[in-house]
Amino acid sequence: MAIVDAKLMLLKATGEKYAVGAFNCTNLIQMEAVVEAAVEVNSPVILQASVAPSAFLKPQVIVAIYRTLAESAPIPICLHLDHCSDVDFCRTCADAGYTNIMIDASKQEFGENVRRTREVVDHCHALGGVSVEGELGTVSGVEDQVRVAEDEARLCDPQQALEFVDRTGIDIFAPAIGTAHGVYKTRFPKIDFERFEKIAGLINGGTTRVPLVVHGGTGLQPDVVKRLVSLGGAKYNVSTDLKHTLIDTTYRYITDHREEYNPGNIDKSVKGAIKERINYWIGLLGSADRA
Ligand code: 13P
Questions:
Q1: Cβ(269) to ligand 1 under 6 A?
Q2: What is the pLDDT of the chain when averaged over all its residues?
Q3: Ligand 1 proximity of 140 Cβ (cutoff 6 Å)
Q4: pLDDT class for 197, splitting at 50, 70, 90?
Q5: Averaged pLDDT for residues 235-253
Q6: Ligand 1 touching residue 275 (CB < 6 A)
Q7: Among the options 82, 104, 144, 171, which is catalytic?
Q8: Which of 81, 149, 207, 261 has its CA 20 to 30 A from that of 65?
Q9: Which own/partner pairs from 38-42 qualify as long-range (CB within 8 Å, at least 24 positions apart)?
Q10: Which atom of ligand 1 is nearest to the CA of 180?
Q11: Which residues neighbour 157 within 8 Å (Cβ) at sequence distance 6 or greater?
């Protein structure tokens, strides 16, 4: 049951008004922590790897870890390639066994974004069992290889969003609505809820066709998260929070145990800290007991 693509998992989430946490991981300990935390509360979950860790660890290695963890877990788990602007690398990861691929051609003009996204959709759908996420408008901040300055960020146009979804055949859709990757400079960033609602209505007004994704999850206040979920956000991406947790916990452990040379203890303390963060997000997103 456990190896799934994103589409069905997120159609269910949209229908039942909760969101599935999609957590960026860079190593085995993080992946284990995410899966263990999700299993403990019976929640579906999405493991994400962006391009740099995927290339560094190798897609086959990440897939081997994913499959080993997912096959023995009684919950649905998807493995997602995050923000990949390279069509060939999207194909490589889909062929290796990732079950959701995000082609991020959002920096291209509309026609080229459609063309590249369609190419990835055709490849993944021909393989079967691999869904595709596309993005329109640009999310500011830095996520791995994708960097968008604040003055470059463009919000998603709702009518274009509908055309994008229809022409590309994507399975899930990430519209830029004012969220940003990284740490927000203010506690109250300007999120365009009305735009998000309009996009959700245009695409999924009658029946849900293409579940929506919220990027830039770290740092949004709980009421903002809940509002986005109630408006149709079904996949909720968290990366920066887990990077900070990994590095801060490691730093603290080593500082407190300067004479100890036992890497396993660092791993245990990182795993515990990551699990706490996953529990927090799952609680907020309402995905516990939805597996
Ligand atoms: P944060 O780094 O802000 O959590 O964003 C994560 C994200 O959207 C990954 O695609």
A1: no
A2: 95
A3: no
A4: very high
A5: 98
A6: no
A7: 82
A8: 261
A9: 38/73, 38/75, 38/77, 38/278, 38/282, 38/291, 39/73, 39/74, 39/75, 40/279, 41/279, 41/282, 41/288, 41/289, 42/74, 42/75, 42/288, 42/289, 42/290, 42/291
A10: 3
A11: 136, 137
| 193-204 vs 222-230: helix crossing angle, rounded to 10 | 20
Q: Tell me whether residue 248 is one of the annotated catalytic residues.
A: no
Cα–ligand 1 centroid distance for 240 (angstroms) = 6
Q: Where on the phi/psi map is residue 286: left (φ > 0), alpha (ψ -120 to 50), or beta?
A: left
Q: Extract the tokens encoding 236.
A: 């909720």
CA 155 to ligand 1 center in whole angstroms: 16
Residue 157 Cα to ligand 1 middle (Å): 21
Convert the pLDDT of each residue in 116-162 to its tens digit: 999 999 999 999 999 999 999 987 777 776 676 766 678 999 999 99
For ligand 1, mutation pick of 23, 24, 224, 243 (most atoms within 8 Å of CB): 24
What is residue 18's predicted lDDT score, i.e. its pLDDT? 98
Instruction: Give Cα 107 to chain centroid, integer Å.
Output: 19
Does the CB atom of residue 240 touch ligand 1 within 6 A? yes
- With a CB cutoff of 8 Å and minimum separation 6, the contacts of 154 are 137, 138, 176
